[in-house]
Amino acid sequence: MPIDPCFADLLADPRNAVRPPPAAVPMDKVRRAAHGAMALPDAPDIARVNERSVRLPDRQITVRHYRPNDEEILPIILFAHGGGWVWGSLDTHDPLCRELADRTGAAVISVAYRLAPEHHYPAAPDDVWAVLSDILARPEAYGVDPGRIALAGDSAGGQIVAEIVARALEAGHRPRHLALFYPALDPACDTPSHAEFAEGAMLTHEGMRWFWDCYLGADRAIELRGLDDATAASFPPVTLQTAGCDVLRDEGQGFANRLRSLGVDIESRDHAGMLHGFLSLGVETPAIEASLALAAERLRASLSAS
Fold this sequence. Notes:
Blueprint: H1 8-12, H2 27-37, E1 48-55, E2 60-67, E3 74-80, H3 94-104, E4 107-111, H4 123-137, H5 139-142, E5 144-154, H6 156-170, E6 177-181, H7 192-196, H8 205-216, H9 229-233, E7 238-245, H10 249-261, E8 266-275, H11 286-304
C-alpha cells in the first residue's frame, strides 16, 4: 500500500522518524522536541474552554473542559491523548478536542494523565479513571449528563480509554460509545503491519517497542489488564479507525474483528495511504474530514439515543 504523497515533506526529514532516542538525552528534552515537531491544524472556536484540577489525596490531575455551546447540561466525551504514553499533552491534542466538541455538540474533557517512563502502567489509566469517577460522582459540577458519557482516544490514548470502558462496565456503568483513532493495543508488536512498516512510515517498529517499554517497564514485567470475552461482548458501540500505512494497523483491525465476532456494534475503517497520527500532523488530506465525520456521526447518535 503506497503512502499518500501528502506526507512527502514530513518523510523527507529524517528527524520526523519516531524511534528510540539516545539514552543520554533527558526526557524533558525529548518531549520538547516531539511537541515542537507537531504541526497543529486549525481548529474551530468553542464557546468556552477552561482548565480545572481533580484533587486526589496524593496528586491532582489537570483536565481541559471544552463546551461547544451555552446549554446548562451537555453529554460528555472523556478524551485521552496519544503520544506513546511518553509525550503528548492537553495542548498537542487541543485541535482534535475542539473538533470533537464542535461536531458532536458534547462537552469534551481532556485528561493530562501521568506520563511514562516516570510513571509506569497503570498510572495513566488510573488518572483517567479518577477523572471519570469524579464526573460520575459530581456531574452537576461539570454541567454534564452522567447518563450520556462517551470515551475517545488516539494512539496510546486508545489503549487507555478501552481499558476505562472495561473498568466502567465492571463497576456497573455503561458508557454510550467508544471512539478509537489508530489505537495502540498490543505490546507484542508482532503483527504483519509491524513488519511491513517497520521503517519509512514515520512511526517505526523500534519506536513503538520503546514506547511500550517506557509504559510497562523495560523488562515488560507489568501485564496489561486483560479483557475477557464476557466484558468485551458488553462494550458499547465502538468506532475504530486505523491508518493504512501504520505499524498499529493490524492490531486495531484485529481488535475490531474480535468485538464484531462478539456481537458488539462496531464500525471500523482503515484509511488507505495514511500514516499514524494523521489527524494531528498538519497535512491536508480528505481522510481527515472522513475520519472526523465518521467519529462525530456515531458519537452524536450514541449520545442522543434515549
